[in-house]
């Protein structure tokens, strides 16, 4: 990545404030406004970049580099995780484990049982 010319320079607390506000706006867009997560992420990324002082002319390159490097590092992980999830769905393994944990913890603790199931199935991905 090349050196960027910033419109202004901000202090560390200001940048942390921008990051906190960006997370809050992202959650608001996804949870309250029901905006698709990817679209919300792009919107918040653009706003955050502009607030941090990145010049509008450099914005496309910054987004391209940022999303590209992130995608490159997690694409294989997401792909393999999706295949593992599909295999568990087709084999019925997820349903069997979920039913067993609901029997173990009881109907009243079904959300807890589902959480444990998710945790167990999430470990192989990471």
From TrEMBL:
Q: Which UniProt keywords apply?
A: Membrane, Transmembrane, Transmembrane helix
Xref: InterPro entries: Glcn_transporter
Q: Which GO terms describe its molecular function?
A: gluconate transmembrane transporter activity
Q: Where are the transmembrane segments?
A: 6-30, 37-55, 67-88
Q: Name one GO cellular component term.
A: plasma membrane
Q: Is Chaperone tagged as a keyword?
A: no
Output this protein's name. Answer: GntP family permease
- Native organism: Brevibacterium epidermidis
């Amino acid at each position: 990545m090349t050196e960027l010319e910033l419109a202004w320079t901000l202090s560390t607390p200001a940048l942390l404030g921008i990051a906190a506000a960006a997370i809050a706006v992202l959650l608001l867009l996804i949870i309250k406004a029901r905006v698709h997560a990817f679209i919300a992420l792009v919107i918040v990324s653009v706003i955050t970049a502009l607030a941090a002082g990145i010049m509008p002319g450099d914005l496309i390159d910054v987004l391209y580099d940022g999303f590209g490097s992130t995608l490159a590092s997690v694409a294989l992980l997401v792909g393999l995780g999706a295949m593992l999830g599909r295999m568990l769905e087709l084999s019925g393994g997820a349903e069997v484990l979920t039913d067993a944990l609901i029997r173990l913890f009881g109907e009243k603790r079904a959300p807890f049982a589902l959480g444990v199931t998710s945790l167990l199935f999430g470990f192989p991905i990471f």
